[in-house]
Amino acid sequence: MPVQPAFEIDLTHEGHAVTLRASLRAAAAIDNHPEGFAGLVDQVSRQSLSAIRAVILATATDRREAHRFLAATTNTPLVHYLVDAQAACLAVMSALIPAGDDSADTAPSQGTTSGATMPLRAYFESLFDYATGWLGWTPADTWAASPGEIETAFKAHTDRLIRMMPQAVSSDTADEAAVYTPERLREIEELGFDPAFDRAALQALKGRF
User: Which pLDDT tens digit goes with each residue over 16-68?
Assistant: First the structure.
C-alpha cells in the first residue's frame, strides 16, 4: 500500500478547535464503545449528538481541547456545527476501516492466506501485537500511529525478514510451504508455531533488530 500519514481533520467553532486523528487508539476506543464501531457509524449518520460527541472524544488528539470544543457548542444552535461535526466524524471513522472492506464490522484477515475476514477488534489487536512485538515500537508510538502506518511498517519488516531467510528464495523445485511470504509470517505469528521452520531460530533472528 502507498505510504500515507494518519488521516487528520480539524473542527473549529467560535474560536475553539479540535483535531481528530485516525489513530489505533481512536480505533480501539470507538470499537470498545457500547454501540461498537458499526453502531457508532450508524448513529453518527443519523446525526446523533451523543454518538458525535463519543467519536470526537475518542479521536481527538487532545481531550482537553475536545472537552472545550464540546462545551462551546452546548448552547449553540445545531445547524451551526452539527453538519460539519458529523462529516468530520464519518471521515475519520472511514479512514480507520481497512481499504477494500465494505463493512464496519470486519476487516480483511491479516493472518491467513484464504482472504477471510476477521472482526475489527481482532484486527486492531493484531496491529498492536505486530507493532509492539515484531517492530519493537513503544505502546505510546503504537497507539498514536494509524492502522495504515502500522500495516506499511510491518510489511517492510516482514519483507526484510524474507530477504534474510534462505528458505524464502524460491526455485522450480522449492516446496511452497517453505516460501515465507508476508502472509505466511503473519499466520505463523498467530498460530504460535511453524512446523516447517525452527521457531527458536526465528526468535533469535528477531532479537537482532
Answer: 899 999 999 999 999 999 999 999 999 999 999 999 999 999 999 999 999 99
Residues of the chain with pLDDT > 90, as a percent, come to 46
The 10 Å CB-count burial string (b at 16+, else e) for 6-28 is bbbbebebeeeebbbbbbbbbbb
pLDDT of 102: 47
